[in-house]
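Methods — Computational structure assignment.
A single polypeptide chain was analysed. Its primary sequence is given first, followed by the predicted tertiary structure written as structure tokens.
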Amino acid sequence: QTLLQSYHSFTPSDSLDQSIHANTPRDKTSDTMTATQSNEKSFKDKEKPSQIRSSNMIAAKAVSDSIRTSLGPKGMDKMIQSANGDVTITNDGATILKQMQVTHPAAKMLVELSKAQDIEAGDGTTTVVVIAGSLLDASQKLLLKGLHPTRISDAFQSAAKACADILESMAIPVDMKDTEALTRVASTSLNSKVVTQHSPLLAPIAVNAVLKVRDQNYVDLRDIKIIKKLGGTLDDTATIDGLVLPQRFANDFGAKKVEKARIGLIQFCVSPPKTDMDNQVIVSDYTQMDRILREERAYILNIVKQMKKAGCNVLLIQKSILRDALNDLALHFLAKAKIAVIRDVEREDIEFVCKSLGCRPIASLDHFTADALSSAELVEEIPGAKFVKISGITGPAANKTVNILIRGSNKLILEEAERSLHDALCVIRCLVLKPALIAGGGSPEIELSLRLSELSRSLVGLDAVCYRAFAEALEVVPFTLAENAGLNPISTVTELRQKHANGEKNTGINVRLGMVTNMLDENVVQPLQVTLSAITLASETVRSILKIDDIISTVR
């Protein structure tokens, strides 16, 4: 064997090397080692799904923990700095996650979850992410006990359905004519925002706006336009009847207001036509230049005469991206004809303007007739405010929109007020779709936890364990509310459990007094739809993360 080994060390041929090693006892050992290595590799491959699952859960829980401190009325605010230096201060979960730089694919699922809750209910965007993080924590503990992800997933789905049934039984029906109840709901939504001290003013504005634009059981929030203007304070915020345009009059026609206005909205340009991009006109002498100028004057004058003939005295011009929608010569002629001009109306605002005025946009001069115009009592430019107000709009198709003008001392306050008002509008819209209320302050989550725990005792097998874990996970909402309010979370949650066990199902955490009280007496109420969609969407996201066992990168 020594001879063979020495021979092997000097033999260059691979084939000879293989033939010699095939007959030595050492080769059996190496074969055994190779087999062991392949077994270890396959064993490692079996471990891979659990590693991927664990990685996904850790990433998603990190996102949940990052916004957990901003839950509730006493929650902290986040300062978000963008790449260009813009700063945003907010505690709105959807806004924080939308602007957060998230790279992990599982963490991005929680960002999408927050967006889905924002679309579905408009409020509860922080709550839904916190619940999802807690459910992921519960499922991770169940996985460590040896439960299969599919069993956990199915049990969580049935637990979410049971939660929906329990919430439906707890709901208090609400009459849409009861504006006081609706205002209480809007106030609860605004209480957790930066602008909470202005909720007595903003809540009735939100209620009146939604009730004005609702069509039976449908509300299109695009019919409510929020205009932000620097100057003044939030106390100057108001609903304005008619239409508000954030532009000023483009020409000086002798006054800053027009009475008995006939308004036209055009989508064509009041300026001389130009050649195509790759063509040019060469002028060789002054007579040709004069002729071009005369033709331009005649062309614009013809347009202005036809507008005056139709009876128009206020002209709204859509913003043009190809060429100037209006030139100085056209402004001069329009001023001579006593036609007030408001230029650069944004393309996305055209539908809203048409719905407000009850007119249709005019695409060409041939269609500029008297029946295409709308009527209003007064069009005026508000001095110092840099916007135009159109009031007293008449016509059967007009006044189907609402304008809310927000005033504020700085840009940060204006943006946060707009976000807060949007949440309040969404909450009232939820009540239009499903007119039912439940108590707030963490009371529905504690009640659900208690009922699910009772239900788990009547079940057998793994479902009972998963139901109990789901029930415990829901306690994260009252626990976090107490923690953020500076209370002792353990004593507060245990006291809540005891009250709910005695049948006080509307008892929740009163962060104002720092104790456990009846939430209905404190007027802390929220729409059923918000909690319902939060639990449903959170459980669906957790189920999706549980079922992922590998991450595959594509070629492109």
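Note: The chain is about 50% helix and 15% strand.
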